[in-house]
Write a structure and sequence with these properties.
This protein is an alpha/beta fold. It is built from 13 helices and 19 strands. Strand 6 and strand 7 form a beta hairpin.
Length: 508
């Protein structure tokens, strides 16, 4: 589908005022939202952008932050995203949308320089700027709005969404109207929606042994999400340890390595994985980030899915080949110019058992090597934890809905093929989730490359007729021997010879 929007997006005209509610009904009940989004990260921003091309849908999205920012602590100079620029907010569902990355380049008069540069993977900072450009023009996004609670109203058969407006008075004609104020004078409001979508993102994960140090004030143990904020202090610290073998850990280590004194680097990089391994980036391997594989994974029995995910760690926890090459090149360059090995140690296969302070400016990590079965003490002055992220808990936000959520054997929410929580039939509306369903939809769940497709799936499920035409097949690989979902491929179908036919005679 190609939207009929102009190439350069323009602000929507102010809509006509909502009709007055009928006597005895709450404001907003007469004209509820079709879809309310909670959180505005890349995934819900993608959903909002594609929803803008469906005039029949009435949507609004709420975010407690004052503006869009994507991992600001990791926008290291030169760091790129690990997916091609086509994995923007909308292109893989609607390349004619006014919200594509190419439209962003055109609006900023950088389309020809980008063409000449021949870059397929863009810098993180540019992706962040592109998303912010979309968020600043797209109507229906309400920043500085914290959603406090979500309930199901059985009388009106709608979701009630209570929010607090954290900023000053809203100057947006589309902003929801307040219904009161809290004790601090902040405006309180309520919206009604037939369906909601959770896109609250993830939060930094800190391993239990290091949590007391990370939580203590003035202790130099920080998560990589805050790296740039503390970068100058880390560069001035005598010895720094980076924990974690993924892309973020590699980028932090490389940035520190490039900017510390030659021959006195004072760096140690350690990780639990058996090697500092490259990300699986073969073309057929990447088909596990396709809609076909997502549908296949969803059809697998729960125990099989749980066994499969840990074995796929190199699909999403590995390091880009270019980053590994750059690290090795920098190490070799330093060995050459320093006429000896640089002051750097790289140790995979290590876990941190315990950690503590041994002096005002020193930290001690107690390590165990998994394969050797040996233990040692490691002393450092600062620790950067590139230990990944976990799904953000929404227990408080969805407390009123919890009794209606159906769960699996491990007490995780069940999620259907259209990315909806499986709810009690008493709830007539749908609760969609974004980047909270890896246990049901596989390794592609947090991948930016599936954002537009998942958004289109969600929007199509809301409508009597699909708004976006999605491909029936997306991979050369046939996952499994049976069709997986509505768009599955049958082995031995029209594109393959009938393997049941008798063999033709051969000449000897």
């Amino acid at each position: 589908m190609s939207t009929e929007q102009p190439p350069t997006p323009a602000a929507d005209p102010t809509p006509a005022a909502d009709p007055a509610p009928a006597a005895g009904t709450a404001p907003g009940v007469d004209r509820p939202l079709d879809l309310a989004g909670i959180g505005i990260g890349p995934f819900n921003l993608s959903l909002a952008a594609l929803a803008h091309g469906v005039p029949a849908l009435r949507t609004a999205f709420y975010e407690q932050r004052p503006a869009f920012h994507w991992h600001p602590g990791l926008l290291i100079d030169g760091a790129t995203i690990q997916v091609p620029f086509l994995a923007d907010l909308v292109t893989l569902a609607d390349p004619g949308s006014p919200w594509t990355f190419l439209q962003y380049l055109k609006a900023h008069e950088r389309l020809f320089p980008f063409y000449v540069a021949e870059r397929f993977h863009i810098e993180r900072a540019e992706y962040d700027a592109y998303c912010r450009w979309v968020s600043e023009q797209l109507p229906g996004l309400h920043f500085d709005h914290r959603v406090d609670a979500v309930r199901w109203d059985h009388e009106y058969e709608l979701f009630e969404i209570d929010f607090t407006r954290l900023g000053g008075p809203a100057d947006d004609a589309h902003a929801p109207r307040p219904t009161g104020a809290d004790e601090d004078g902040r405006a309180l409001g309520r919206a009604y929606a037939r369906n909601i979508v959770l896109g609250v993102g993830t939060e930094p994960y800190v391993p239990e042994p290091l949590r007391p140090l990370a939580d203590a004030p003035n202790v130099p143990v920080l998560h990589s999400c805050d790296y740039l904020e503390h970068r100058e202090r880390l560069l001035a610290t005598g010895h720094v340890t980076v924990v974690g073998s993924g892309q973020s850990g590699a980028e932090v280590f490389l940035d520190l390595l490039r900017n510390r004194p030659l021959g006195a680097e004072g760096l140690h990089w350690m990780a639990r994985t058996p090697a500092f391994a490259p990300m699986e980036y073969s073309k057929l391997g990447l088909e596990q980030f396709s809609p076909d594989y997502t549908r296949y994974f969803h059809t697998l029995p729960e125990p099989v899915r749980d066994q499969l995910l840990p074995r796929q760690w190199q699909l999403y926890k590995g390091i880009a080949h270019e980053t590994l090459d750059a690290i090795h090149h920098e190490l070799y360059r330093r060995a050459l110019h320093a006429d000896g090995w640089p002051g750097v140690v790289l140790t995979p296969g290590v876990t941190v058992r315990t950690a503590g302070r041994i002096a005002a400016a020193r930290l001690e990590l107690h390590l165990e090597h998994t394969e050797q079965g040996t233990r040692a003490r490691h002393t450092t002055e600062a620790v950067v934890l590139a230990t990944g992220y976990r799904e953000r808990r929404v227990d408080t936000l969805l407390a009123a809905l919890d009794p209606y959520v159906r769960r699996d054997a491990s007490e995780r929410p069940r999620v259907d093929a259209d990315h909806r929580l499986v709810l009690d039939p008493m709830i007539k509306g749908s609760v969609y989730v974004q980047n909270a369903e890896r246990h049901t939809h596989g390794v592609g769940t947090p991948d930016l490359g599936l954002a537009a497709w998942r958004s289109a799936v969600i929007l199509n499920s809301l409508l009597a007729e699909p708004a976006y035409r999605l491909p029936s097949r997306t991979a050369f690989t046939a996952f499994g021997l049976q069709p997986s979902g509505r768009c599955g491929t049958v082995i031995g179908g029209p594109h393959l010879p009938d393997q049941r036919a008798p063999l033709a005679p051969t000449r000897t």
